[in-house]
Amino acid sequence: MKNILFSCAALLLTLLLGGARSTDPAVVTLDSDAARSVLAYARTDSALALQAYAWRDFMPGARGCAAPEARSLRMNVTVRGNSLASLPAGARISALSVRYADELWLADAQPSSDCGTDSACVAANARGGPAWPTGARVLVIARVTLPSGHESIVTDSLVEIVRTE
């Protein structure tokens, strides 16, 4: 059932991508009704828990200020299973989206080793996001794909974008 719901959400999102876009090619602008429709399918799998950390880097560089690309939104996400059976070896975060207001960042999630030796955990990082304001709260949506092909959707709402200096 969750695969069907995700497929419906993916299809709806694909159809909507032909609409308005922001200046950032990885961010799509959706009207409020469409965004609510897409997010209505983002039901959290209760066997999994998503933790997300969002930040923009403003630390000074060699020339006194961070490079513009360093100031883009970055994400660290971890998904933990409630038991070893709920998140078997080989699970991965296969898609990551972040919503702020009426924009959705389709992040390029890269596997991460942030879980250490926790075998009931998978992690991913994403860089190059939009320059949304620090202090803003975002909704993070991750798709976890198991080795069996089963997919689960997990969310973390009201994640604050912090500023590093």
From TrEMBL:
Q: Which UniProt keywords apply?
A: Signal
**Which residues does UniProt assign to the signal peptide?**
1-22
Q: What is the lineage of its organism?
A: Bacteria, Candidatus Eiseniibacteriota
UniProt name for this protein: Uncharacterized protein
Q: Which domain of life is it from?
A: Bacteria
